[in-house]
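lol ok so funny story. i was supposed to be doing the assay writeup but got distracted and ended up predicting the structure for this chain instead. priorities right. anyway since i did it might as well share w the group, maybe its usefull for someone
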Amino acid sequence: GIGVDTARGFLVRSRLSQALDAAALAGGRVMFESYRDQDVTMYFTSNFPTGYLGATVAAPVITDDGAKKEFLTVTAEATLPSTFMPSV
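and the output, tada:
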């Protein structure tokens, strides 16, 4: 049971990382556009499907470095309930 739950966790983390990378790259292409955050969110949700392996994911948090606009950071958190090993 622990092995299955751990493997699911790694799969969710990997998919989440890929979705965040794709979203950040998309945001970098339109860094100075007014619709940047909408594009980032669209790419994120396209690459991390709702309910993937039963995970619940909060909306991505998008931040930049202010007026310089040299850096874009996209973060998100996922919660994955265990399948075989219930939490106590």
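The chain is about 45% helix and 15% strand. Residues 35 and 43 are 12 Å apart (CA to CA).
back to the writeup now i swear
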